[in-house]
Design brief:
It is a single chain. Among the domains are: 120 residues, Topoisomerase II, domain 5 (Alpha-Beta Complex); 80 residues, Gyrase A, domain 2; 306 residues, DNA gyrase/topoisomerase IV, subunit A, C-terminal (Neuraminidase, 6 Propeller). Helices cover 29% and strands 25% of the residues. The chain is built from 17 helices and 41 strands. Helix 7 runs antiparallel to helix 17. The chain is elongated and about 150 Å long. 38% of the residues are buried.
């Protein structure tokens, strides 16, 4: 018995795993997941279109069952699961998925609600007319073919597309270690960009964006901003924000409804409605009473009914932030070229299309020229035959068989074998004079066509002009208007304040650092001299340091006694009710250990042109700085004013740079001067002297004066106050001694603050013990400068006025 020998080859497990995984990865990348950079199709989509073209399932022929097409594709070219093939076929028929569908479907092909299509045995398909522009030139030797999986048939490596399918219809796919996500674009815009690039091969992204504005989704909606589009076109990757299109509709009853008419690409309408319903049940949308889906074949219409006195824009902003009505789309221009994945820029994609399209057109023209030359060759033989018809007939009659007749014709008239065979195949009817003239005319026309084709093939400029003409014709036939609108100046991010109705809040800050906000509406009016109501629970060792009014949509600039500035949103401050203590400021901003908040300024716009911060210290130094210097504060704060070691910041107000300023002291002295006396300084400057003080007097406040603010309102620490016409305070020079504002006595106590008010403004006063009173200033008669004022609030023993603020009712 012959001994069997076995041979073992040692293989490194690491090397084998690496080789096998790379083979698998490349198979997925090239053969399944990524589209071709030229025709924009993955292998499965290309095979579906090719199988339908082969079976003559075109736009002008009857529909065929989808199952039949899927069977052809699986059996001939794509040996994978039927579900995967059918899903790919369905996608090409969905007008909400493809910007320009390639397959015309009949039956249920799914919906924008996320409903699945009917089974393939029920649906029918045929090619859309647009698919002709991808497939029509296949018969003219324009693209290379390769063998199918079992080497029995041939299939095209890519289709001879007349338009860049990757840009026009987009593509998405996840491969091994890479992914692609190309959004669809407008056909007309892409064609215009290609025509421009033919004339300007070095066109920049900005030049091309004059034509291609951005992605154009089949579901419409808005794209917010152009930065992400430009980045994607320049680098191959970018992130864009898509927002649903909605409008406000008034009902007959006077209520307002939100109507959603377009939704972001690849977002399920049903899931959006489901999410809105969840928010309504969870009390996140208390202003919404009902949601209805009134969509039909004419388009999307989702109606959101609002309750009375609800702001539609606030609700809409809330929905943008918490549902898929606003979403992001990550653009990745990754595609396959020459069997390699590559990340493309917009210019590279267009250049790649034009380069390959030029080669396809050249091969098509060469094919047409060779076909015309072959036809001319036959026609020349037919003309010789007609001119010598008697002799030709005689030769054929004398010949024993077809082969002998062919050889005799070749010998007698110097013909080729092809010409001889054409003569033998010619019908007798072609011997008439009319047919003779037709043959001669056809030969002349073909010669002219051959010359035209040769001229184009020899001149690249003519070749590119031909491509331009073809693109122009396609644009006229298939081009349409944009569906997706680009909002260049809209905010991408929906801020928290955009989702909350604008409302004025009372902000209370204590000496130990606790802060809270309470809606202004929570405080009722009381008569002058009332006791007030609890505005904040404070501990025995704590007291109210400051009270002021700010909008829910405002920013707060918090200035410390050390001259540092911090930035905070009003909505970051907790709303804990009128009696709540609030949250410690250290939980909201990073104050240094030895810092205390001394002044808070409420602002809406940190880029305002005529807007300044005017700061004053206890020692009487004043400084003015443009507000834009503080628009990018750090989390650890930024320097607002230079402070001497024996001084501290007292107050800060916002001005327009041209106002009159009134500075007041604890002993009832004020100085009025024009703000122009204080020049604009940098952030670290100390400032200049505002007012000279007598004895142990100290500055307690600063206020600006404007035309609408006719009165100066002064409050003392024992609850007395008065309003005095501003005109009683003459304008002096900065740095003076000032004049009397209020006669300070033991009964009134020292002045604790002042503010300017108009005829109908209100005043909110807070005491150290947390009592708060709201008073109409119109109930207080104007008084002279020497008056001591009237009682504004009745204080408990040991309590004092801590702070007060004016509320404008204009």
């Amino acid at each position: 018995m012959e001994e069997r020998t076995e041979r073992f080859v040692p293989v490194s497990l690491e090397d084998e795993m690496k080789r096998s995984y790379l083979d698998y990865a490349m198979s997925v990348i090239i053969g399944r997941a990524l589209p071709d950079a030229f025709d924009g199709l993955k292998p499965v989509h290309r095979r579906i279109l090719w199988a339908m073209w082969e079976s003559n399932t075109t736009w002008d022929k009857p529909y065929k069952k989808s199952a039949r097409i899927v069977g052809d594709v699986i059996g001939k070219y794509h040996p994978h699961g039927d579900a995967a093939v059918y899903d790919a076929l369905v996608r090409m028929a969905q007008d909400f998925t493809m910007r320009y569908p390639l397959i015309d479907g009949q039956g249920n092909f799914g919906s924008v609600d996320g409903d699945p299509p009917a089974a393939m045995r029920y649906t029918e398909v045929r090619l859309e007319k647009l698919s002709k522009e991808l497939l029509e030139e296949l018969e003219k030797n324009t693209v290379p073919f390769t063998s199918n999986y079992d080497n029995t048939l041939k299939e095209p490596v890519y289709l001879p597309a007349r338009f860049p399918g990757l840009l026009v219809n987009g593509s998405a796919g996840i491969a091994v270690g890479m992914a692609t996500n190309v959004p669809p674009h407008n056909f007309r815009e892409v064609a215009d960009a290609l025509i421009y690039m033919i004339d300007n091969p070095e066109a920049t992204v900005d030049e091309l964006m004059n034509f291609i504005k951005g992605p154009d989704f089949p579901t419409g909606a808005y794209i917010i901003g152009k930065e992400g589009i430009r980045e994607a076109y320049s680098t191959g990757k970018g992130l864009i924000t898509i927002r649903a299109k909605a409008f406000i509709e008034k009902t007959k009853s006077g209520k307002e409804n939100i109507v959603i008419s377009e939704i972001p690409y690849q977002v399920s309408k049903a899931k959006i409605i489901e999410k809105i319903g969840e928010l309504m049940r969870g009390k996140g949308l208390e202003g919404v009473s009902e949601i209805r889906d009134e969509s039909d074949r004419d388009g999307i219409r989702v109606v959101i009914e609002l309750k009375k006195d609800t702001s539609p824009q606030v609700i809409l902003n809330y929905l943008y932030k918490h549902t898929a009505l606003q979403t992001t789309f990550g653009i990745i221009f990754l595609a396959v070229t020459d069997n390699q994945p590559k990340l493309f820029t917009l210019q590279e994609l267009l250049q790649h299309f034009l380069l390959r399209r030029k080669e396809i057109v050249r091969r098509r023209l060469t094919f047409d020229k060779e076909k015309a030359e072959a036809r001319v060759h036959i026609l020349q033989g037919l003309i010789i035959c007609i001119n010598n018809i008697e002799k030709v007939v005689e030769i054929i009659k004398k010949s024993k068989n077809v082969e002998e007749a062919s050889q005799s014709l070749i010998k007698n008239f110097n013909l080729t074998k092809i010409q001889a065979q054409a003569i033998l195949d010619m019908q007798l009817s072609r011997l008439t004079n009319l047919e003779r003239e037709k043959i001669i005319k056809e030969e002349e026309e073909l010669r002219k066509e051959i010359e035209r084709l040769k001229e184009i093939l020899q001149d690249e400029k003519l070749l590119m002009n031909l491509i331009k003409e073809e693109l122009s014709k396609l644009k006229e036939v298939y081009g349409d208007e944009r569906r997706t609108e680009i909002l260049e100046h809209e905010e991408k991010e929906i801020r928290l304040e955009d989702t909350i109705p604008e409302e004025d809040y009372v902000i209370i800050y204590t000496s130990s650092g606790y802060v809270k906000r309470t809606p202004l509406s929570a405080y009722r009016y009381q008569g002058r001299g009332g006791k007030g109501k609890i505005g904040m629970k404070v501990k025995e060792e704590d007291e109210v340091a400051e009270i002021f009014i700010a909008s829910s949509h405002s920013y707060l600039l918090l200035l410390t006694d050390k001259g540092r500035l911090y930035w905070l949103k009003v909505l970051d401050i907790p709303d804990v009710g009128t009696a709540g203590r609030g949250k410690h400021i250290s939980n909201l901003i990073k104050l240094k250990e030895d810092e205390n908040i001394k002044s808070v300024v409420s602002v809406r716009d940190l880029d305002a042109e005529d807007s300044y911060l005017l700061m004053i210290t206890k020692k009487g130094f004043i400084k003015k700085t443009h507000i834009s210097a503080f628009k990018n504060p750090r989390s650890t704060g930024t320097t607002a004013i230079g402070i001497d070691s024996d001084d501290s910041l007292l107050s800060c107000i916002k001005t327009d740079g041209k106002m009159d300023i009134i500075v007041g002291t604890a002993n009832g002295i004020v100085l009025r001067f024009n703000e122009k006396d204080v020049r604009d300084m940098g952030r670290s400057a100390r400032g200049v002297r505002a007012m000279r003080l007598k004895g142990n007097d100290e500055i307690i406040g600063m206020e600006s004066v404007s035309e609408e603010h006719k009165y100066l309102f002064t409050v003392t620490e024992k609850g007395y106050g008065k309003k005095t016409l501003v005109e009683e305070y003459r304008v002096q020079r900065r740095g003076g001694m000032g004049i009397i504002n209020l006669r300070v006595t033991n009964k009134t106590g020292k002045v604790c603050g002042l503010t300017s008010i108009s005829d109908y403004d209100d005043i909110i006063i807070a005491t150290n013990n947390g009592k708060v009173i709201k008073i109409k200033t119109e109930t207080i008669r104007p008084m002279g400068r020497y008056a001591q004022g009237v009682r504004l609030i009745s204080l408990e023993e040991g309590d004092k006025v801590a702070s007060f603020t004016a509320i404008s009712n204009q």
